[in-house]
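Continuing the batch. This is chain 6 of the set; chains 1 through 5 are on the previous pages. Same settings as before, nothing changed between runs. Recording input and output for traceability.
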Amino acid sequence: MQFQFTPEQDAFRDEVRAFLAETLTEDFWDYHAANELPGWSPRFSREAAARGLLGIAWPTEYGGLGKDVVEQTIYMEEMAYAGAPQEHHRRAVQQVGPSIMLAGTEAQKQRYLPGIAAATISFAMGLSEPNAGSDLANVETTAIRDGDEFVVNGRKRFTSGAHFSDFLWTVARTDPGAPKHRGISMMVVPLNAPGVEVRPLIDLQNRHHFNEVFLEDVRVPLDHLVGEENRGWYINAQTMDLERSGGAHIGALRRHLDQCLAAARRLQTHGNAAARPARWELAECSIRVELARLLAYRVAWLRGLGHMPNYEVSIVKLLATETHQRLANVMLNVYGLAGLDAGGEAEADTWGTAYLDMVSKTIGQGSSEIQRNVIATRGLGLPRG
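Output for chain 6:
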């Protein structure tokens, strides 16, 4: 691969940055704070869709631009770096849409993909359960055939965005007698279906992002099954690889690093003694950020060649999320006890908020232990322990 972007790719990055500068104005952020949930802006998503900036690497017949995965990664990096509110469309664009293109029927592609590309429909991820978090093979939600429908019963936990999404991209056990990794199917559940109840989960900072979703005798048409029945484990494995790939991790990591560097410079200017040794930690983190960025674009290059990287995306995810945590630790040490405050107006309060945010970074999308196991078994070929 070439370790540089083509002139066309550089021009596309400039186009995305220009859109962000035009859209994410002070008036936009004032409106967002007053009228929308944090990170969730259907208005922003529709404006991005109107520029063709959602399904960038998708075929034109499904509402995309037909560009390369590298351009899609550029878009994701720049959106995350700018802090754009992407929650209305991010999961659908990053994970669900590409999974449907890989495993869905033509009718499903026509049903969902144009709506995702236009930001008129949104998806939540219904994967984790009380007894099936990192080990999704323990899923207990059931989907039993009844005529031309499945009857779904179960409980999903840590369901991001379910309180403002249209559909649940979920796994359920369709063959209780099969081995753990078999007998699981992937399906789309409308969140407005009778029997679906969404309950909020409030985090340590009194914010509502996660939910519990209760499914009681929810009737789902058979044509909402994605891929082959009882083969959902393998579809979900691809979905998770898609979630861990892309530029969102890298854009958010670059943003975090730049915020840390700017704060450290301000503190050093004002004579904060702790800022000086932090420079070496931040320098090392800068190297890790650039390495993660190069690896992320290698993943994009491989996907553009038609491959589905596996251990490579685990390397990117592991490196990015652990660097996020390392940056948060550096700044907490710089600010001392004041850095433990969160949710206030002072600069130190924002670092306390960031520190708490980073706790979940190495758990979401598969824990660091899972990523290391993937890298060892798939990447290094080590035997399973």
